[in-house]
Amino acid sequence: MHAIYRATMDIVLASASPRRLELLQGLGISFRVVPSTCPEPPPEGHEKPEAYAMRMALQKALEVAALHPGSLVIGADTVVAVGGQMLGKPVDEADARRMLGLLAGREHLVATGCALVPPDGPARTFAVGTRVTMIDPGPAALAAYAATGEPLDKAGAYAIQGQGAFLVRSVEGSYTNVVGLPLAEVLETAVSLGSVRPVKD
Predict the structure, then answer these.
(1) Which domains does the chain have, with CATH numbers?
(2) Residues near 187 by Cβ (< 8 Å), separated by ≥ 6?
(3) Residues known to be catalytic
(4) d(CA 7, CA 18)
(5) How far apart are CA 35 and CA 42, in angstroms?
(6) Which of 86, 82, 102 minimizes the C-alpha distance to 41?
(7) C-alpha span between 187 and 48 (Å, rounded)
(8) C-beta separation of 66 from 119 below 8 A
(9) In angstroms, rounded to a whole number, what is the distance separating the alpha carbons of residues 111 and 173?
């Protein structure tokens, strides 16, 4: 695979998500993975999904940046919101079935907050929202999907890039955002910080 961009400094991804890792790897950028270990408390009051995801992303990025002061640290957090509820990762298969039932046949918001913390300047934070509409395949199909185990480490209990793709009727906005990282926006911000540039530049 030919690289499209190259890093001009040490880059650290503060996430253990294999989906985020794969998206960044696709650009050819060299980076290290140092997952954040900070807790993820529930939203505060009437906090909007984008605001909560951005706050969590910044918290994760700052935790890792404190240990790697010479690096650009990228933090991210993804939440799913439907009917006034925010959905994180299900705790078990039953919780996954519950979440899938809430999403079935409806439109929901996938919000990913991002924080890029450079070694010499203020953090850049932003959030990207994508509207996703699901089919309703019925409780038996949802239970069968939950039983695959795929939903257990996914916000909203489904993987659009995996078996869960059969649930998705339409996507309005960034597809990679639903996977877990709004790649175009992260890249634009990293370029503006001077931490990556095209290999032909």
Answers:
(1) 5-198 (3.90.950.10)
(2) 5, 27, 196
(3) 77
(4) 20
(5) 20
(6) 86
(7) 25
(8) no
(9) 11
Question: Euclidean distance between the first and final Cα of the chain, in Å?
Answer: 18
Helices 93-103/139-147 angle, 10° precision: 140
pTM greater than 0.85? yes
Tens digit of each residue's pLDDT (9 = 90 or more) over 73-131: 999 999 999 988 999 889 999 999 999 999 999 999 999 999 999 999 899 999 999 99
Segment (H or E) for 128: strand 124-134
Single out the residue of 33, 53, 31, 29 nearest to residue 43, CA to CA: 53
| DSSP line for 179-199 | HT--HHHHHHHHHHTTSEEET
Q: 7-49: per-residue pLDDT in tens?
A: 999 999 999 999 999 999 988 889 999 999 988 887 877 889 9
What are the CA-CA distances from residue 127 to residues 75, 109, 145 (Å)?
Answer: 12, 12, 29
Q: Hey, what amino acid is at 117?
A: V
**Residues 40, 101, 151, 108: what is their CA dihedral angle, to the nearest 10 degrees?**
-60
Structural contact between residues 4 and 28, judged by C-beta atoms closer than 8 angstroms: yes
